Amino acid sequence: MPDKFQNFINGKWVDAKSGRTFENRNPAHWDEVIGVFPKSAKEDVDEAVKAARSAYEKWRLVPAPARGDIMRKIGDLLVKNKEELAHEMTREMGKVLEETRGDVQEGIDTAYYAATEGRRLFGHTVPSELPNKFAMAIRVPVGVAAIITPWNFPMAIPTWGIFPAVLSGNTVVFKPASDTPKTATTLIRIMMEAGIPEGVVNLVHGGGGEVGNAIVVHPDVDLILFTGSTDVGKQISRQASATLKRVSLELGGKNAQIVMDDADLDLALDGVLWGAFGTTGQRCTATSRLILHDKIYDAFMAMLVDRTKKLRLGDGLLPTTDVGPCINEAQRNVVQSYIEIGKKEWARLVYGGNIAVQGDLAKGWFHEPTIFDNVKPNMRIAQEEIFGPVLSVIRMASLEEAINIINGTIYGLSSSIYTRDVNKAFVAIRDIKAGITYINVPTIGAEAHLPFGGVKQTGNGHREGGWAVYDFFTEWKAVYVDYSGKLQRAQIDNY
Question: Is 284 a catalytic residue?
Fold first, then answer.
């Protein structure tokens, strides 16, 4: 019998009120059931929000440095359990063990960063325009935060939301992706072991249609942090606007790497292979487009195809594996549908393009790393997010043309340029419309202490990560202290 798991509401592990469940399976070995989880609905969300609302009144009064001490303990526990967590995550979502170790490390870094913010959360003091009067602005928590996260980074992305939310004095209702519920459960257990009080963090498993929507429209949820597709983000924005909830959206991307004719081609090749096929291309920051200068196009393409042929598909727990499976059959079908779209658009399929069913690969949802060239910037495979191991290669003749190509989509998350010319690098930094620009680095590899997010339809202006996320999880409150002993009227008595 597979292990059975529960929701976590108000400090207790509980089944969904309906008694319904769903299975969580290994995408590399689909016959392997990792666990059975509650298929929750509105009534379970109501209980979780009620618990979070009640806990908020006490939690907001806990000094921020004390909240930070708990964050530090969480970080220590993540360090202690890193290898077990990585192994569990690879079974659950497929990416190779080296990457899931990095996923846990991102959570560790985020925990320790949150711990230090407990002694910061800086406000401002400013001069008053009147004598014997003191003026300052302080940051206060908002209330109940909903954290809705995807499956591709089942440890890192939840910590990006939960840790700063809790450190800032908010309480949380957490809905993880249905493809990765076990990692979410383990994270909550670690947080409880570290001393998070009952009701401060609540976990509700289930689908977006029932659980996600119930959270978004709930009148007692004050703010929502969502990471996922642009279409779902737009829906959340519309639903949340009815009650003027604060919403942070980190959405899709169609990220590109530019390789100039003066670039270190070996370095650029390492970058694009990691950016395009790491995590099986299932990252919002994945390198989905490669923009090559005319002068190095043919040479680089030959290098790229040769190295891609050597990538090994397989179970992410095996040390010989370079590329793991797609998360599920539906996502693999999406990838394959874009292969057919690329062919119909008359892009040239240079390598790959097939579902992988050889030997043990038939047990999971594997797809070959795929490369198209002769891609035009307006083709669908160069415009739409695929979320799989598909790379579209585009030819260009100048930096200006390359930047126009990068900017020519609805997205603006991550970008990269390989060049030895510092002047070109700074032009790219200035002119690329993206939330992240890497110089001589692939489009993936964000660090926990910097803001993360994008422009245009990649998001709505907020940022995850670093100091910026704490602005989302706190309200600014202006405070005036008049010690003059008399009525002083601002803008009147001083002019």
Answer: yes
Question: What's the confidence (pLDDT) of residue 451?
Answer: 97
DSSP class of residue 208 equals I
The Cα 72–Cα 375 span in angstroms is 48
At 179-189, the pLDDT tens digits run 999 999 999 99
Which position among 106, 250, 368, 385 bears the catalytic label?
250
Q: Containing H/E element for 111?
A: helix 97-117
pLDDT tens, position by position, 189-235 = 999 999 999 999 999 999 999 999 999 999 999 999 999 999 999 99
Take residue 116 and report the two structure tokens written for it. Answer: 């230090």
Of 4, 2, 23, 22, give the one whose Cα is nearest residue 14.
4
- Report all structural domains of the chain as residue ranges with CATH numbers, in order of start: 7-251+459-478 (3.40.605.10), 255-439 (3.40.309.10)
Those residues with Cβ within 8 angstroms of residue 143's Cβ, 6 or more apart along the chain or in another chain:
53, 56, 170, 171, 222, 223
250 is catalytic: yes
CA 444 – CA 447 distance, rounded (Å):
10
pTM, two decimal places: 0.97
Q: Which residues have a Cβ under 8 Å from the Cβ of 234 and sit 6 or more positions away? A: none
CA 221, 226, 232, 236 dihedral sign is positive
* Beta strands 21-26; 348-351: pairing state: unpaired
Could you say which of 47, 210, 284, 326 is catalytic? 284
In the sheet that holds 370-373, the strands lie side by side as 348-351, 370-373, 390-396, 287-293, 255-259, 414-418, 436-439
CA distance 116 to 453: 22
Q: Got the DSSP string for 293-354?
A: EGGGHHHHHHHHHHHHHT--BS-TTSTT-SB---SSHHHHHHHHHHHHHHHHTT-EEEE--S
Question: Chain centroid to CA 3: how far?
Answer: 28
Angle at 15 between CA 12 and CA 20, to 5 degrees: 165
